[in-house]
Structure formats: C-alpha cells, structure tokens
C-alpha cells in the first residue's frame, strides 16, 4: 500500500495545483470567509451541491459569482422570486408557426454552475424542479430528456431571518444538498478591511479564469482514489447510526430530542466530502480529522428534532457536537 500511496500523493500534488490559484484569485475580492471558500472547493471536487445560509450582506452571492469568474465554465445566476415558474428554470416548448412544429428552448439550468439566489423565495413547484435536476442530472422538457453537462453544481442561498413571503425547503429536498454551510459575520479586523476595500465608488478588482471543466473532472477522478481505511469507514457509519439511535453510544439524554436521524445519503456524502477535504490538504488518505472538519456541514440539515428539543432550544449543531464527542475515534 505504501507504494500506491506514494503514486497517489504524486498525483494529488500535480492535480491540486489549481487550488492555490483559485484561493489567490478569491483573495483579490473576498476578505476572510476561508471556511466558506474551502467548502465551495469541496463541493466542486466531490460533485456535491451546497446550501448557503446567512443574513444579508455577508457576501454569499459575491463569493459564488467571483468563484464562477475564476472557473472557466458556464455560469447562471437565477434570482428566485414568488412568481418564478418551473419553465423559467428548465425551459419550455415553443411552437414554430412556419413549420408547425414545437422546438425546445432550454432554460438557465443548462449550465455548469448555478447560483440559486434566495431559493426559499419561490414556491414548491420551482424548488422541486431544481432539486430534481440536481438529483437526476437531467431535465425533461415535453417528451425529450436532456442530460446536464459535467460538471453541474448548484449553490443555493437562503436568508434565515425572513419568514414572510418565503417557502421553506422541505427536509427531503434539503437532504439533496451535500453541505449546508452557515455563513457567519466577519471578525473585527476583517470587517475593517472590507470597509476599506469596498467603501469606494470604483469597481471591484478583476479576477481571471484559472481552471476549466477539464481540470475539475480530472481532479475528481483523483479524489475518488483517495484512500480510506475500513476503520475510518466504520467511524462514519458509527456517527450516522448514533444520530438514529443515540442510546447505543451512551447518549440517553438525546433519545427524546431526535425525531429522525441522518439518512444513508449522509454516509455517502460524508465519505465523499472527507476525501475532497483530504485532497485539499494534499493528503492521499482520509483521517478522522477530515471527517470532523466537514461533518457538521454534512449533518446539520439531516437531523430532524422533536418538539421537546425545540422547546428546550436545542439545536442540531449541539446534538452533532455531542455525537462527535461521544463516538470513539479509531
């Protein structure tokens, strides 16, 4: 195995060159937000969609649109509004009077990187249309089915403080996002730098495209090769099972607080995301630290709490932290 790891390490060193280039370009525009940028990279490498949640003004949209400029791939920003229709997203059939036939007009979903801005502002039909495309990687218009180009990545944003005029995503749909990332306020020094940079009437610094679809797809193949020991695989399964049966790991106090634990999709996504994290750290194998580093973002939206938990003001983050502290690390 040592020889294989050496070869794999060399591959990772070669294929991960673009990560530093992306971060360097992002730093021209985005101040701080290192955890967010790392998770966006994990989504790109692990082929997983990401839900970004945070109050307005934290540069969620700016971060994604800047990343889109750095990646030499097709990008579409879709502003979700209450009057948006599934056809506005997916496309529709247009009747051509000249030849008496219907022709397909493809919608903005036919792109590599989709920014679904304020996804919770559109009704369930539109959300379902997007999330079906995310899951199936294809779109049906009329009687024709069209595969979506690779890579295909959806980065959706939502505002947690506004309830009026919003349509919260159902748990089954939220589960299709690999990561749910909470975007927090910047540090005081970072905010000072943001103010100094942005409080001008000039344009934002220009960024250049440094990586294309070919490099991304090539890097994904290497991410798939990242070695994960069976003990580490069992650690992931133990964590997921602890969300369903906390008593089995000695967390009796959580029994009445969890209505539903994480689905098998959580195991798959935690495995893929931890491999991508190891790749970013330039390592050819996954450690429990990789799982702990990304585990909260994989699990926070997959645990459904009971009314008792809500009454006690218990959060899924607190429950995930307790599980990570209790489950034995290999």
Strand order, largest beta sheet: 3-6-9-1-10
- SSE run: HHHEHEEHEEEHEEEHEHEHHEHHEHH
Largest sheet: 5 strands, parallel
Let me know the number of strands: 13
Q: Radius of gyration in whole Å, from Cα?
A: 21 Å
CATH domain topology of the largest domain: Rossmann fold
Shape, per Cα inertia axes: globular
CATH architecture field of the largest domain: 3-Layer(aba) Sandwich
Model description:
The protein has 330 residues and is α/β, with parallel strands linked by helices. The chain has 2 domains: 17-216, 3-Layer(aba) Sandwich (Rossmann fold); 226-326, Orthogonal Bundle (Helicase, Ruva Protein, domain 3), CATH 1.10.8.80. It has 14 helices and 13 strands. It has helices spanning 2-15, 17-29, 34-46, 60-70, 86-90, 124-136, 171-174, 188-198, 213-225, 230-244, 264-280, 288-299, 307-311, 316-326; strands at residues 50-53, 71-72, 75-79, 91-96, 101-106, 113-117, 138-141, 144-147, 153-158, 179-182, 211-212, 258-260, 304-305. A hairpin with a 2-residue loop joins strand 7 and strand 8 (144-147).
Q: What labels would you give this structure?
A:
single chain; about 325 residues; alpha/beta; Rossmann fold; Helicase, Ruva Protein, domain 3; 2 domains; five-stranded parallel sheet; two-stranded parallel sheet; 14 helices; globular
């Amino acid at each position: 195995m040592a020889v294989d790891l050496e070869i794999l390490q060399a591959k990772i060193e070669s294929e991960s060159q673009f990560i530093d280039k992306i971060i360097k370009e992002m730093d021209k525009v985005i101040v701080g937000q290192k955890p967010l940028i790392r998770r966006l990279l994990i989504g790109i490498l692990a082929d997983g969609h990401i839900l970004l949640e945070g109050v307005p003004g934290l540069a969620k949209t700016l971060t994604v649109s800047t990343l889109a400029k750095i990646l030499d791939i097709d990008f579409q920003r879709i502003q979700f509004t209450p009057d948006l229709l599934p056809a506005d997203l997916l496309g529709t059939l247009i009747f051509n009077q000249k030849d008496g036939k219907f022709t397909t007009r493809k919608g903005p979903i036919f792109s590599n990187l989709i920014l679904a801005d304020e996804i919770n502002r559109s009704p369930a039909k539109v959300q379902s249309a997007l999330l079906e495309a995310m899951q199936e990687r294809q779109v049906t218009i009329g009687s024709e089915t069209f595969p979506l180009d690779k890579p295909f990545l959806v980065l959706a944003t939502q505002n947690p403080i506004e309830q009026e005029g919003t349509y919260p995503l159902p748990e089954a749909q939220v589960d299709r996002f690999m990561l749910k990332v909470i975007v927090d306020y910047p540090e005081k020094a970072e905010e000072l730098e943001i103010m100094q940079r942005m409080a001008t009437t000039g344009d934002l610094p220009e960024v250049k495209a440094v990586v294309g679809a070919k490099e991304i797809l090539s890097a994904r193949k290497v991410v798939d090769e990242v070695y994960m020991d069976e003990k580490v695989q069992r650690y992931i399964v133990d964590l997921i099972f602890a969300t369903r049966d906390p008593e089995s790991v000695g967390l009796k106090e959580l029994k009445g607080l969890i209505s539903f634990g994480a689905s098998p999709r959580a195991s798959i996504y935690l495995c893929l995301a931890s491999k991508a994290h190891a790749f970013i750290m330039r390592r050819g194998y996954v450690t429990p630290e990789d799982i702990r580093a990304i585990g909260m973002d994989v699990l926070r939206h997959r645990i459904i709490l009971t009314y008792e938990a809500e009454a006690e003001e218990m959060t899924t983050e607190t429950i995930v932290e307790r599980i990570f502290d209790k489950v034995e690390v290999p």
